[in-house]
Amino acid sequence: MKIAILAGGVGSRMAGETEVKPKPMVEIGGKPILWHIMMHYGYYGFKDFVIALGYKGEVIKKYMVDYCSLNTNLTVNLKSGEVAMHECSQQDWTVQLIDTGMDSLTGTRIKKLTPYLGNETFMLTWGDGVSNINLRDLLEFHKSHGKLATLTAVRPPARFGHIRMEDDKIIEFSEKPQTVEGWINGAFFVLEPGVMDYVDDDKNVQWEKEPLERLARDGQLMAYKHDSFWQCMDMPRDKVFLNELWGMGKAPWRIWE
């Protein structure tokens, strides 16, 4: 099964980092967040990736091309220039890196991946969010309902401490809990090839608007509810939070170890 990852956006709210690299290459624990996402899929046996590139896509290309040499021991013959790898990467991944345009919106990027995804069920996510979602359970849920699309619905972490009061007395305080009300789109989609019919060819389309809205109206969009850990890296403070979790050994998405 192919795993499509959108990694072409500018990431303007992470401007301090993304002036020199795309947001999926911003590091958590010394590794790009893109690597963390791929490790998550790899843990569940999904190893065939199609990555939609755009802004500074050459940085991702270089990282993937150099991945083996950067993650193994080498012997270098300085006279001949020959490089021998002692062993290759433990990750048995195939990665297709596809330029989908600098200014393409998410729906158009997905549409441009059509020739590389095959006429079969595929998964899709963004290159800036991590979760501990059970991807096998997600896939089984998708197969069970027979619709074209499944999105993962999540309750995002609150940005401030939650308090519950009676009159002026605080009876419960919890720091940054998952919100108790409201579900949002957490990506981690499972999709059938038919979803491409919902993305217009002749205009630049945002996936989260007309395509998903039309799928919902047609009864073709289902939600897999995930009420455990999920976090996107949208702002610098999100990077700090994720690095703190990783540094303390308390990263919930680190399920591969």
Structure described in brief:
With 257 residues, this protein is of the alpha/beta class. The protein has 9 helices and 16 strands.
Can you walk through the features of this model?
With 257 residues, this protein is an alpha/beta fold. The protein has one domain (2-247): Spore Coat Polysaccharide Biosynthesis Protein SpsA, Chain A, CATH 3.90.550. The chain contains nine helices and 16 strands.
Task: Detail the topology: elements first, then pairings.
Elements: E1 2-7, H1 15-18, E2 27-28, E3 31-32, H2 33-43, E4 48-53, H3 57-65, H4 67-70, E5 74-76, E6 83-85, E7 94-99, H5 106-112, H6 114-117, E8 122-126, E9 129-131, H7 135-145, E10 149-154, E11 162-166, E12 169-174, E13 184-185, E14 189-191, H8 210-217, E15 221-226, E16 230-232, H9 236-247
Parallel strand pairs: 1-4, 1-8, 4-7, 10-15
Antiparallel strand pairs: 2-3, 5-6, 8-14, 9-16, 10-13, 10-14, 11-12
The radius of gyration is 20 Å
CATH architecture: Alpha-Beta Complex
The number of distinct structural domains comes to: 1
Number of continuous helical runs: 9
Keywords:
8-stranded mixed sheet, 27% helix, Spore Coat Polysaccharide Biosynthesis Protein SpsA, Chain A, 26% strand, alpha/beta, two-stranded antiparallel sheet, 9 helices, 257 residues
